[in-house]
Design a protein that fits this description.
Helix content: 55-70%
Distance between the termini: 71 Å
Largest sheet: none
Number of strands: 0
Order of helices and strands: HHHHHHHH
Number of helices: 8
Structural class: mainly alpha
Strand content: under 5%
Radius of gyration: 32 Å
Shape: rod-shaped
Low-confidence stretches: none
Oligomer: single chain
Length: 181
Amino acid sequence: MQERDEEWTGLMRAAKAGDSAAYHRLLQAVTPVLRAAARRGLARSGQPIDQSEDIVQDILLAVHLKKHTWDETAPFAPWLFAIARNKLIDALRRRGRRVFVNIDDFAETIPSAPAAETLPSNEIAGHLETLPARQRDVLQAIAVDSASIKSTAAKLAISEGAVRVALHRGLARLAGKLRTQ
């Protein structure tokens, strides 16, 4: 590793001094290493490795555009690998971490959710009657009749914000009552 870094550092110094052949040899030397690093990074992140060439090209372009920022008194490899790391992170962020699993493959092994407990409708009506009128009307419209917030606001001649507040307060009050029973 030390020899490789010294070789790369020497090639980069020569390239910055105007030696285009040294720059070409440097790029040829680092490309396979960058390709392997990009593939490892993609594989570790659960991404397909076929995207590694795009990342390598991004790294090489950044090296070319930013070579003037490299400190000639410092080793080249840490500077290169910092760029490579950042370009890999950028690529992973652009792709996002998405894992797609076809649910049909697991349909028989996934237990179905237990049926939710529901109260008899007369008990629900009784609980709603204990609420203030606005909260009761809003809960009746949204939770029982499945109306939207917008249509409930129009029906009750109040703002959508007021519907949301009444819904939240009514649900909180009902939850508190049901917890104490």
